[in-house]
């Protein structure tokens, strides 16, 4: 079973802490707690992961980002990736080869995962019924600490 984790990028970036950081890999650009805990989970339990950014789409950790930005999926369409661009990027990166997609993202990302994933891929949102960022962070940390991934099937 091959699983791809989709993790959120996050508003807080390296340039907020160090405005002179310059170009950095995506894996170093996002410094918020939710991103970090989601990435730790993804690296531990998933075959691979992508960081989903409204501006840049599906980012690999080694993809280079050159500057700070503040774009969300609620931003005007001229600032963010279009659905067509996301689908094209998903296909170019060969992301349909994964059996499962694990969305560790908020609700605003869900429509974009639904339109990009291949029809045969199963998508799970293990954090969707957890209210509050504190509880989400706790669940991610607990899964990592207990070496227990979220179930991929409804219990």
From TrEMBL:
Domain of life where this protein originates: Bacteria
Domain DUF6884: 6-141
Pfam families: DUF6884 (PF21818)
Protein name: DUF6884 domain-containing protein
Natural source organism: Alkalicoccus halolimnae
């Amino acid at each position: 079973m091959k699983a791809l984790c989709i993790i959120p990028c996050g508003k807080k970036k390296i340039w907020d802490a160090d405005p002179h950081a310059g170009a950095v890999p995506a894996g170093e650009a996002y410094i918020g707690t939710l991103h970090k805990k989601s990435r730790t989970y993804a690296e531990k339990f998933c075959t691979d992961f992508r960081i989903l950014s409204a501006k840049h789409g599906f980012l690999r950790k080694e993809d280079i980002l050159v500057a700070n930005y503040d774009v969300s999926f609620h931003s005007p369409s001229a600032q963010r990736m279009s659905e067509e661009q996301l689908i094209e990027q998903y296909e170019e990166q060969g992301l349909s080869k994964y059996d499962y997609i694990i969305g560790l993202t908020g609700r605003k990302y869900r429509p974009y995962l639904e339109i990009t994933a291949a029809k045969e891929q199963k998508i799970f949102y293990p954090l969707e019924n957890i209210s509050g960022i504190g509880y989400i962070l706790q669940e991610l940390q607990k899964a990592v600490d207990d070496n227990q991934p979220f179930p991929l099937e409804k219990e």
